[in-house]
Amino acid sequence: MNFSNETPSSVLRPQALEVSSDATPNTTAPNNNNNNGSRCVSQLTIAIVMWFLILMLVFVIAWVVINPHSPTLRLNSLSISNITLSNSQFVANYEAAFVVYNVNKKVNFCVDELKVRVLYGKAVVSEDEECSERQTPVCVRKMSDEEMKPELGRDSVHSVKPRVFKDISDDWSKKLVNFNVKISLRVRYEYGIWPSKETRLEFSCMNLPVQFMSTKGTGKLMSGGKFCGV
């Protein structure tokens, strides 16, 4: 009988190597899964951003095509009462009434913000930023109009320069003062299912002669109303 000349250690060596090879952990598969997951998240994010940008571009183009006209504004009346002149201030109560016209045939709009300033020349004598809380929102349907009546109280007064104060005091003593009124609006256009579009407009109502019956009486607009420019 022939016996092999291999020693036990030489016989066991391949098995030991084989066991060692099988025991090595396989980390390739989890790393690949993580990379694939990150790639999917990145691609999904890019797709969402691109879809949003395309949608916004469609909305912008749609409003360019719709091209809504700006409102038209007419100041119908302006009255000034309870007047006091002191400390470079023309203190008074102001009441205005104006009509906002929607000349669009297909587009409605809402006035969401209103700001009124009364000026003598270029100097602001009264300004009220809280008109919006009392007057808005006012929605105007297509081819229609709405009246707004903002009021500016005595606490809305502004101080003016001494030269301006002297000029307005002289005019008031003559019972005729020319004022300017600036009306700022934030307008929100609405058309069907499309998202609304907002814009800000400032109307200037210039050279408004206000006549006072007496230095203690109420002054009223003489011209009977005027359209205001944008």
From TrEMBL:
Region span, Disordered: 1-35
Keyword Nuclease included in the entry's annotation: no
Polar residues compositional bias, start-end: 1-12
GO cellular component: plasma membrane; plasmodesma
Cellular compartment(s): Membrane
Coiled-coil stretches: none
Protein name as catalogued: Late embryogenesis abundant protein LEA-2 subgroup domain-containing protein
GO terms (BP aspect): defense response to other organism
